[in-house]
Design a protein that fits this description.
alpha/beta; Rossmann fold; Alpha-Beta Plaits; nine-stranded mixed β-sheet; four-stranded antiparallel β-sheet; 35% helix; OTSB-like; EC 3.1.3.12; trehalose-phosphatase activity; hydrolase
């Protein structure tokens, strides 16, 4: 009996140590230990109090849904969707999803009505009442769009790579391409994109082509917050989670006033986020924590 009593805590300890951490470490703290359980009370308990008005901003791919070899295969779990719906319908929070996808595409993936959707890294915003806001694109640049896609398809689409047409921007994907061809095709894609007046930047196993206007996810988040609350929105409680370099603009924009999470397993990654969490599953636990505060 005594031996069984001693072994029980040991077995429990072994079990807990085998769990994947749900929340890991403060951003940029390479020496901080990984945690076995989510510590959202520790990180957010003093920031978000019951009854506070919350703005929850989220990325989609790699944050609300696992990354896949093709964007069409990405699926948000029913549990994640239910939690997000409960938060959006709570009356104490509004939810905005800012994605690299086109705005109608990200709305179709999530399928919730009481949510603000922003696509093409903030170039498009779709409100629940159907109102849309689009950042202006110079006509001469817009006229080059189809030509750019045509040349990309002719010159760099091979060995598993492909071009995603998002109507006002493009993404050249090479996640499934043979690795030996990736450096050359990525470099050439960048050259082609820039030759047509678009900005090229690296993303997850891809090169993105965006219109040459001073706009990004951070500016889109600022616009959404300003139009959804008021000029004093920085006095509200703002949370953001994202997994990509394009999400860093939002993290920088709310730094010092809001709280942000970078979804990554890379302990050495330098980020503007306040904290790192290692997985989409950890984002789900973050939503459940928020849900417990607002519902």
């Amino acid at each position: 009996m005594a031996r069984s009593t001693l072994l029980a805590p040991l077995a429990c300890l072994i079990f807990l140590n085998c769990l994947e951490p749900l929340i890991s470490w403060p951003a940029n703290d390479k020496d901080a230990p990984a945690m076995s359980h989510p510590e959202f009370d520790q990180y957010l308990g003093d920031y978000l109090q019951a009854g506070d008005t919350l703005a929850l901003l989220l990325d989609y791919d790699g944050t609300l849904a696992e990354l896949t070899s093709h964007p069409n295969l990405t699926q948000m779990s029913d549990a994640m969707r239910d939690s997000l719906r409960n938060i959006a319908n709570s009356g104490k929070a509004f939810v905005a999803v800012i994605s690299g996808r086109d705005v109608d595409g990200v709305k179709e993936k999530i399928g919730l009505e009481n949510v603000i959707y922003s696509g093409n890294h903030g170039l498009e915003v779709l409100y629940p009442n159907g109102t849309r806001h689009n950042q202006g694109i110079p006509r001469d640049v817009a006229d080059n769009f189809d030509k750019m896609i045509d040349q990309l398809n002719r010159e760099v689409v091979h060995h598993g790579s492909w071009v995603e047409n998002k109507r006002v921007s493009i993404t050249f994907h090479f996640r499934e391409a043979e690795q030996q061809y990736v450096p050359e095709m990525a470099a050439r894609a960048k050259e082609i994109i820039e030759s047509y007046g678009y900005r090229a930047n690296a993303a997850h196993a891809s090169v993105e082509g965006k219109p040459p206007i001073q706009w990004n996810k951070g500016l889109a988040a600022e616009y959404i917050l300003g139009t959804s609350f008021d000029a004093n929105w920085r006095q509200r409680k703002v949370l953001f989670a994202g997994d990509d370099t394009t999400d860093e603009d939002v993290m920088r924009m709310i730094k010092g006033t809001g709280r942000s999470f970078r979804v990554t397993k890379d302990k050495d990654l330098v980020t503007s986020a306040d904290y790192k969490i290692p997985s989409v599953d950890a984002v789900y636990h973050l939503l459940k924590w928020i849900e417990s505060r607002v519902v």
